[in-house]
Prior knowledge:
By secondary structure, the protein is an alpha+beta fold. It is 27% helix and 22% strand.
Amino acid sequence: MSAPADKTHNELDIRSRSGKVRGDVITLAHGSGGKAMRDLIDDVFLSSFGNDYLLPLEDQARLIMHGFDHKNNRLAFTTDSYVVDPLFFPGGNIGTLAVNGTINDLAVCGAKPLYLSCAYIIEEGFSVELLRTIADAMQAAAEKAGVVIVTGDTKVVQRGAADKLFINTAGIGIIPAKINISAHRAQAGDVIISNGYIGDHGAAIVDARGEFALENSIESDCQPLNDLIERMIEVCPDIHCLRDATRGGIATVLNEFAQASSLCMVIDESSVPIQEEVRGMCEILGLDPLYLANEGKLIAIVPGKYAESLLAAMRQHPAGQDTAIIGEVKSSPKGVVVLSTLFGGERIVDMLVGEQLPRIC
């Protein structure tokens, strides 16, 4: 349960949780479970995430699930781990990625995200100040999306046993009773919608690694999608399929929809929004933007009658200003994705085999 209603987290016994980290880098002692670890939690994580649920520091968070009292509402639960390299990139860092990625995994099933957990695996020698910066970024991202980080865990491993920092986040939310979004619900005649430019995250990570002499201003699209999706559901209460296009890009998502629904997803290449800098990078490096990772883009399959009204509504939202209808669902050939090319031909877009870019999230 939460803290008593007549107390805020600042009025709790926070004075007993006022430890300070000694030194500028993480040591194995910070993962030992003793005073050094307590000081790290107090000084970095509680100062960033402090709230009524987290401050008791029990082995579990005791949550009030507002909206879960109706018998037909459902609980949504997800977890994901983040190992992105580098930790900081144009448009975000591993912390914002960990929050937004898990929020989006909840939101695409129609859930209202409520609570997150956060677990850190830290390499010995990691900078305390960088850790604090990442924790603060996570809190800012959580506040923007209207969720609360309520529980967590910290482990420290020897130098060389991990690459600087890994983060796991888990999230829970409530799916309203009437929402039914699933990969198998696509129907012939549906339209395919993307909320904007694809491939920005993958391209930003390539640039941030500095392995190629490329000059560009590409930023990751890392952002929460829950507010946009709530607006979409208001306009189109019968969204058939919805997924955020992360690893494997929109090509992988559409293949999953095609196989689950035993239908054909047809994409119009001229309608897929791709920034020129991203397109140019892909041409130079031999990458396909359809497979590049995104961290703030979704693919929706909706009945054709809702297409124009949904398009208009999404374009009025900051996360959907560049929304476009990129294709349609057909009855055959079953289970495949077809790209209508700029040259008037067609080609099959297969499921990604392997990985174009490792450690992009």
